[in-house]
Amino acid sequence: MHDYKKFLVAIDFSDSKNKVVKQAKHLAQIFNAELHAIHVLDNIPMPDMPYGTLISLETPSDDIMLQTEKNKFIHTCESMEILPSTRWLIWGTPQDEITRLAQQERFDLIIIGSHGRHGLAMLMESTAKNVIFHAECDVLTVHLQDSE
């Protein structure tokens, strides 16, 4: 059995009930593992920043959309008692930044939500699928219903 000691949970806010974070927190407690959280900003314009840029959570932003994303991420992490030193807000492509950070920081396990897809939607690219195929560590997907 693998000795899981360092987890990375990917937060994307599509899971309104924080099911993924709750599962990650529960597993981290069982394994007595360190829990880190990542949110990748890919849905707001970020001028003059290359992909892979770590965004400070301590410094307020004049950009309303960026500050809104920061606040949601901070609130989610605080509600799940994820320490400030283990929070990662990064600008980029989610699957690339999640797998890059996991390799760089030597995580044992990535925990990510996955919506069950059927028909044509199965053929479309998904962040979870790409993370599974490109991560160098184990990946656990938490099944989310479309209503979640």
Count structural domains: 1
Distance between the termini: 32 Å
Number of helices: 4
CATH topology: Rossmann fold
CATH architecture: 3-Layer(aba) Sandwich
The largest pleated sheet is described as:
6 strands, mixed
- Mean pLDDT metric: 87
> Strand-and-helix sequence, N→C?
EHEEHEHEHE
Shape: globular
State the fourth-level CATH superfamily: HUPs
Q: Which structural class fits the helix and strand makeup?
A: alpha/beta
What is the CATH class name?
A: Alpha Beta
Gyration radius (Cα, Å) is 15 Å
- Sheet with most strands: strand arrangement: 3-4-2-1-5-6
Topology:
Blueprint: E1 6-10, H1 19-31, E2 34-41, E3 53-54, H2 64-79, E4 87-91, H3 94-104, E5 109-115, H4 127-134, E6 138-144
Parallel strand pairs: 1-2, 1-5, 2-4, 5-6
Antiparallel strand pairs: 3-4
Helix pairs in contact: 3-4
Brief digest:
The chain is α/β, with parallel strands linked by helices and 148 residues long.
List keywords for this structure.
148 residues, Rossmann fold, six-stranded mixed beta sheet, single chain, alpha/beta
